[in-house]
Amino acid sequence: MKSRFLAGVAVFGAVTLTIGGAALAQQAGRLEQIIERAKERRAQQPADPNATPIPGPGDYRFSFVHGGNAREYLVHAPRSYRADRPTPMLLALHGGGGDADFQADDSKYKLISKSEAAGFIAVFPNGYSRFSSGILATWNAGACCGPAQKNNVDDVGFIREVIRRVERQANIDAGRVFATGMSNGAMMSWRLSCEAPEIRAIAPVEGTDTTAHCSPSRPVPVIEFHAADDPNVPFNGGVGVGPSRVNYTSVPTTQAKWVALNHAEAVTKRVLTVNGAHCDLHPAKRGGAVHDRHRRAQLAGRRDAAGTQAAIDGDQRQRPDVELLFVALTLSAAGGQAKMHHA
Description:
This protein has two domains: 42-199, 3-Layer(aba) Sandwich (Rossmann fold), CATH 3.40.50.1820; 222-343, no CATH class. Helix content is 35%, strand content 23%. The protein is built from nine helices and 13 strands. It has helices spanning 2-44, 100-104, 111-118, 146-150, 155-169, 184-195, 251-261, 293-300, 322-334; strands spanning 58-66, 69-77, 87-93, 121-125, 172-182, 201-205, 222-227, 238-239, 247-248, 269-274, 277-282, 310-314, 337-342. The termini are far apart.
């Protein structure tokens, strides 16, 4: 009986080892495919190491060394771009484990389409990656995430240099430089709002503020999007199901922090309700973010928006439409603070 049991354990162990080995081989094969696709993209569009002027509409890839690391950023100039006319710029930051190409893929986030519709230049910086292809990149957003945070990579300095380079390469309206991001990229947008005075407003999606210290030089309007059932970055804070194992700040704590930093009203009012979501507004107090209807309308192509700082929260299965995100981003650019919840 004992020998049969031991034999059974040995067989089970062998089967487990085989299955585990197959899973590892599958993951390795998948990683190899990702690397090959990244190499193909870069072969089709090699990165320009110089801050070459952007002559007109189109897609561009640039690289430079920052902090001893080779870094890249993509630029999309819409068809409406003219070198003699100042144009707003949106920095779009990918999530942890992603890359700039994924964030710029119009089938994923439709940011290229929105750039064309609204007339802003879209810039996609690539996070810190241990791979020359730039894949599986992360951002040092404070308490998160991955190798970028563990190695204390100067991502704020990198992104600020990207802004300076693009301002030399194209005709950028320095008063309309905005940032959005997904998950780890959203967290990075919070850090930028603390440390990069060039950023005038942010629209983080599914990522809370993980900074320990924050002293913005001016109020930075915010619209925050967050699903109430997000398992990776829980709405009410704590450790999510993702690989980072970070004890995340909650959405309410993040909002309270920025209501104070932005001199906004603590009491909210409901300003928008759509299927599966609603938006709560913290209006700006005196000394808060400046209300500027003309610039707001120019960025999103809408003239009926009210100044807000916002957060969108709710059911992960009913994410806000990208059009709504950018209309809301324009709302936040005007002043105040609001929050939008998916219900």
